[in-house]
């Protein structure tokens, strides 16, 4: 190999090594599309509002979609890809089968609205549209409006096999939750703040039935659960009923994005094991108490955590491992 070729190869390797995740995230910025599609956020907002008017599931569906996307391969819309005969995609992994179709539909309709706008066609990534739409559903349900960093490219890989072990489960304890969030550069406080998204949305009975039926030999109901709340859940989810029936994650204000989730935890009304553990474990309890006291404080902490989440594993023009998809559900 000629000396010039060796030097060129070494330079390429050094450049690739220099593009760290932090540097990739640093390429994100507000108003990224100021020149290429200046009205993108309004276009997405209008599409999200139309979808929201059709069904409230738009809120929780889009939120969960964003979380599940960022935790596997990073925030690159890989969750959107449809499986093909040659590839089983992320969305068909068992833990993703409960993702509401309305979340996918929200992004697809917003993408169509953007691409139908003169000058914006194929200029905005599905990953960025999902990030904007997530901010908008939070705000539409009563939560804060916050600036979204943009500049993500869409990922080139989506496999069901890559999902295993990367998503939080409803039965996890605090150590397990802390570990899985730490793998994405998120602190325990970030994890507790992001868990506040459970102030909207729903869960299927099968995800928490172990807490209200045959919990242990000494108690059929999880003793950390409020007795009246447990009775309410048993009425909504009889032991012989279809486990696909769902109930609200927040029994008090299920359609409002607020800090009621944390108040519920204090009152023993966390629906999932992974919810209630945040209060019963003394290490996380002070944060729950802190976020329960003041909704504005919760909003600030939530925004910081969402911004950090939106930087996870991003693909940018500098990393060179992504593109802008023509269709959100299929590779170009």
Automatic annotation (TrEMBL):
Cite the InterPro entries for this sequence: Haem_peroxidase, Haem_peroxidase_sf, Peroxidase_pln, Peroxidases_heam-ligand_BS, Secretory_peroxidase
Query: Which segment of the chain is annotated as a signal peptide?
Result: 1-18
So where does substrate get bound? 168
Q: What is its main location?
A: secreted
Give the first-level EC class, as a single word: oxidoreductase
Q: Does the keyword NAD apply?
A: no
Q: What does this protein do?
A: Removal of H(2)O(2), oxidation of toxic reductants, biosynthesis and degradation of lignin, suberization, auxin catabolism, response to environmental stresses such as wounding, pathogen attack and oxidative stress. These functions might be dependent on each isozyme/isoform in each plant tissue.
By what name is this protein known? Answer: Peroxidase
